[in-house]
Structures are given as structure tokens and as C-alpha cells.
Amino acid sequence: MSKGRVLVTGAAGYIGSHTTVELINAGYDVVGVDNFSNSSPDMLKGIEQITGRPLPFMELDCSDRDQFAKVFERYPDIAASIHFAACKAVGESVQQPLKYFENNLRSLLYLIELSTRDGHGRGIVFSSSCTVYGEPDPENLPISENAPVKPATSPYGRTKQMSEEILHDCVTAYPSLKVIALRYFNPIGAHPSALIGEMPLGVPQNLVPYITQTAAGIRKELRIFGNDYPTPDGTCIRDYIYVCDLAKAHVAAVDRILQVKDSDRYEIFNLGTGTGLSVLELVNHFIQATGVNLPYSYAPRRAGDIVKVWANPEKANKVLGWKAGTPIDDVLRSAWKWEKKVRGIQ
Ligand code: NAD
Ligand code: WQD
Q1: What pTM value is reported for the model?
Q2: How far is CA 148 from CA 159, 169, 268, 275, 308, in A?
Q3: Cβ of 309: how many Cβ atoms within 10 Å?
Q4: Per-residue pLDDT reduced to its tens digit, 68-89
Q5: Could you please report the per-residue DSSP string of 332-343?
Q6: Which residue has the CA at smallest separation from atom 30 of ligand 2?
């Protein structure tokens, strides 16, 4: 029996595709939407191959209200939405802030309006980010949800902060609305089947896709940005979380919204492992886990990088009954398997 209908915006994207798989495996009916501005329809085929069933899907732009409304017309049984659809390139957001405000904020405003307009209570799970914490004060590490939100360092980060505030205000105004904001740390890896994974366009900005493309010979070497930070080995520290573990947390969040009647109507959870790894440690794990040669060198610091941040995930562990447990070597092997599949490497 179905546990209910969940709308997934950005379903063809990196985290959206993995979450769609986990929702279906957990017994939800899903309808996906995407405009393929940063993804390909191939990802939908991957989802269908993994789950063994067709995925109800509509190609549409969530920042166009009339288009977006069509999914609620066709699927009036939508009980909750997970809102992944957004632009996410930090550097581009500095160059083109209006693109980010338009796309990320409009989509959210329409989603809230469409979710509440008939007085029908529909839940929203929102993709937020650890970027809202900025550079944490060292005494706040590992960082928990009640740590201060620092002024955003990019328009992208600002859209996440503003989105959280908008959702909070709307929960106050609309008694039928329930929201869970999930603050992701650094999602990495791919589904073990290698049928879905991360598909960065152009030169990857994020560490793991750069590592796998270097290992595949597409990039000459990995440049490690800065080895003179105040950390044990001089490189920056992050909390790398496996995308399939992250996807399962979304299922737990939807379960909570739909099944726990007396939960707070606006909740925030950190989604991380609770362990910080330096860039160098991650690189060494990759080499050890895959046995592949990875040329790298040290380069100057990258502007705007945070020195160290990792999550205190206890609230999600306790309240959502969820824990990120996949060992890092398995995660990195999954990323490498995906890269090899995409490049046709044996
Ligand atoms: P992604 O780009 O792979 O996925 C986003 C999907 O949304 C893409 O398929 C894109 O085509 C689609 N999309 C964008 N605008 C749309 C619109 N107006 N209408 C319909 N579809 C639209 O990104 P991702 O890594 O899967 O990230 C998903 C969400 O998680 C984003 O909101 C992102 O900001 C957030 N997030 C990501 C990370 C990360 O490191 N990947 C970290 C924290 C938060
Ligand atoms: C990780 C570490 C780099 C590439 C970004 C966004 C953030 C969030 C997650 C969405 C850093 C180093 C990287 C390379 C390197 N996204 N690095 N060489 O910066 O933690 O966060 O993604 O919300 O908002 O800013 O992730 O993967 O870019 O970098 O040395 O070629 O790897 O300096 O220390 P980051 P990242």
C-alpha cells in the first residue's frame, strides 16, 4: 500500500534522483518535476532502472507559476513536497545574483502558495545548506542547529537563508503548513548501481567530482586549495556525507511530517556525519579505496573558503531516527564507479 504521494522538485538532479529512489523504495508514490537546467533526462531512466517502475514526471519550470500549478492540478493527492529545484553554483551566484534570487526564491514562493492555497495541509521539506553557518567560531564545532546564522558570503547562500526565513514566516501564517529545513553538509558519492550520480557541467568546482575526473585522466591534476590553514595538515576540513544516506534522511523527514501529528510545524536538522575530514585525508582515502593514482599539487587558498566545519547531527539522529553510516572508502568507491561508468572506463 502506498504511503502517499510526494512531489520531488529537481528530481533529475543529483540529490533529487537519489532521494526519489529511496522514497519509492520506502513505499511512497512520487511525482518528479524538473526543467533540466542542470541535469539530463537520462537520470530519470536510471531511477526507473533501479526501482523497476515508470516514474510519473513532468518537465516544467518551478519559477513559472502557471507551469508549476499544472503538477498540483494533475496530482491533487500530493501530500508533501521535497524542494530541491534551485541553482547552486556559488561563484556564478556572485556574478549573476538576480538569476539566483529569481529562480530560487520564486520557485519557493510558488511552492508555498500551491501547497497551501486550498487550505489543504501539505508538508514541505526544504534543501538548505551548512553554508548558512558561514565560518563557525571554533568553540561551536561540531556545529549544531542553534548556532548563529552568519551573514551570507554569496547570493546563493543568501537565498538559502532567505528561504528558511520565508518558510518560517509562512508556517506562522498558514496553520496547515508543516516544514522541515534540512541543512546538508557536503554530499558526495553515487548510487551503488552507478545508474545515477553527480553530473557537473564543465569544470567541476566541488572536490570529489574534481578528484574522480582527475583519476579518469580528464583533468591533469587536482589542485588542493591551501595547505597553510590552521588545521592539523594545513588543508580545509569538511563533513562529507554519502548522498544515499542523505536521501534516506529525506524519507525520514517526510515520514515525520506526514505521520507525527504533534511535531513542531517548523523544524531544522543538520545532515552530516559528525566527522570532519581534511582535503588531504579525503584524497588519501580515495587513493587507498580505489588503488588509483591521483596526481595532486598544492595551490593558493580559494577565495571565500571556510577553514573548518562539520556537523553535530545528534538532533537528526535522535528525532528523525536517522544516521549517516556508510564508510568513507565505500562512498569514494561509489563515486569512482560512477565516473568510470560515465566515461566508459573498465
Ligand atoms: P542539482 O543541480 O543536481 O539539482 C537541482 C535540480 O533542479 C536540477 O536537476 C535542475 O535542472 C533543477 N532545477 C533548477 N531550477 C529549476 C526550476 N526552476 N524548475 C525546475 N527544475 C529546476 O543540485 P543538487 O546538488 O542535487 O542540489 C539539490 C538542492 O540541494 C539544491 O537546492 C541545492 O542548493 C541544495 N544543496 C546542495 C548541496 C550540494 O553540495 N550538492 C549542498 C547543500 C544544499
Ligand atoms: C571542499 C574542499 C576546497 C576543489 C560548496 C558550497 C556550499 C555547499 C557545498 C551547497 C574545500 C577544496 C575543492 C578543488 C580543492 N553547497 N577543493 N580543490 O566549498 O565546502 O562547499 O559545496 O549548498 O555552499 O560552497 O565544497 O567541494 O567546493 O570544496 O582543494 O579542486 O575542497 O578548497 O576546502 P565547499 P567543495
Answers
A1: 0.98
A2: 17, 18, 13, 20, 16
A3: 23
A4: 999 999 999 999 999 999 999 9
A5: HHHHHHHHHHHH
A6: 224
As given in the structure block, the three cell numbers for residue 184 are 546538508
- φ/ψ of 40, rounded to 5, equals -130, 150
Residue 160 grid coordinates:
538559502
Give the start-end residues of each E strand in the chain: 5-9, 29-34, 57-59, 78-83, 123-129, 178-184, 186-188, 222-225, 237-238, 240-242, 266-271, 277-278, 296-299
Q: How far does the centroid of ligand 2 lie from the alpha carbon of residue 51, in Å?
A: 31
Segment 225-235 shows an average pLDDT of 98
Length of the chain: 346
Instruction: Give the C-alpha separation, 154 to 97, whole Å.
Output: 9
- 267-277 residues labelled b (16+ CB within 10 A) or e (exposed): bbbbbbbbebb
Q: Which of 128, 135, 159, 206 to mutate to test the pocket of ligand 2 (most atoms within 8 A of CB)?
A: 206
Regarding the beta carbon of 245 and ligand 1, being less than 6 Å apart is answered: no
Residue 289 grid cell: 579505496
d(CA 57, CA 44): 9
Residue whose Cα lies nearest atom 24 of ligand 2: it is: 131
Q: pLDDT at position 121, please?
A: 80
